[in-house]
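User:
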Amino acid sequence: MPDKPTEYYLAGEHGQLGAREYERVVPARFAADSDDIFMRSMISNYAMEEKSDEGVPTGRFWMNESITRAAAREVLDTHKGLSGDKLN
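Assistant: Predicted structure:
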């Protein structure tokens, strides 16, 4: 497995304009409604996208521990109805 990137775009940066302009592109294999919608959601809403040395998005996505925990909380709340102490 390659080393974790040091420079990346966060999911929340998608759609920014100006000097920090960034457009997230979900890989084609996860882009259609007939594909893996869970992976599309993780890539669209949580994952970090690696930047190339030139600062260009590479299409390589990562999730660190804190992002993974946030995604897990959302899944447990949305799909299992867990909240409060039960979620923790």
